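Q: Sequence in, structure out?
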Amino acid sequence: MQKIKEFVKYNQIIYKAYYYIASLFVNILKIFVKVNPKKILFLSYGGKHYSDSPKNIYEAMLQDKRFYDFEFVWAFVNPEEYDIPGNARKIKIDTLQYYITALESRVWITNVIIERALNFTGKKTFYLGTNHGIPLKEVKDNENVFNTLSEYRYDGMLAQSEFEAELDVHQFKIEKSKIHIVGYPRNDLLAVNPSFVRDKIRNFYKIPENKKILLYAPTYRDWEKGTGCLNINLIKWKEKLESEYVLLYRAHPTIKFEFAVNENSFFKNATEYENMDELMIATDVFISDYSSSFFDFSILGKPMICWAYDYAEFSKYRNLKVNVLDEVYGGIITEDELINLIHHLPIKEILRKTREFQEKYVTVFGNASKEAIDIIWSNIVE
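A: Exactly. Output:
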């Protein structure tokens, strides 16, 4: 099934036919569907996760008396795999039931898109885009017709700074007045930075107290078309760093990761761990490349390193709106240079760059879940 989806997505003729026919069907269906003023649909990363800001907003709603009699629905690729709190109903994405539920719902909450790249809107829907990261990257060479036809129709968006709000206006074609600079709900936990979360992660991965945690989380690469593989010389990393560190590896949440490496005392696969913020709180040194995760991690004020080993290839597909190669310590360095940098961290300089990065790009955080549900309520109250 996944191979069929990828074939349709990247074949222009077939995808266009699917887009127009399926969009027409859903818009005809809309005529016969009645809106439920107290139904809310949640979706995270295309139904592949129960995570991110939609999760935080949902769990905040469970504690808010204004939403006590609302019907909550979560859509997943495999609903049976998720055990979520509260009384939410789980449905399978990309089914007739999913599209009927979307048309019935008064509120859509997602960090990507609800429409599944089709062209339709709800009758009376408040559509909140939480964003899954500051839009750091912009498509340059667009081979994917999916990006050509799909549009964003958000009625409101959340942002972490004025800088991000300006990016969102361009990226999502949304009016500035509809962007709420309140931070990301998922990052409320980072502002608190509780020690029990650190202990939870260390216990979960059985990390001894005398070892620090490296978290390596590379971003999506267009030319891999939704798949990924481990891109490091693990033997070399283990040999040079095992005495001081344990390495957690987390693949991008939207890709299918081909994982053929056994875990050991040094290396742990953290790809399936749902809560990225919890991993960040436990992390001592964060490593990524062109990922918006840098913005989130900077809230913690801990060392972060940019490893842009394949920038020449990456730049063929994407433009960077923030020059993380210069603004985050590291840049276009080799694997050996990265290992040496980790081994001899210039702490003072790295922390200075992290602080300057956060103060420039992430100016609001800590109370976004409450702010988000207040925004939702103000837009749906009759």
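The first helix runs from residue 2 to 10.
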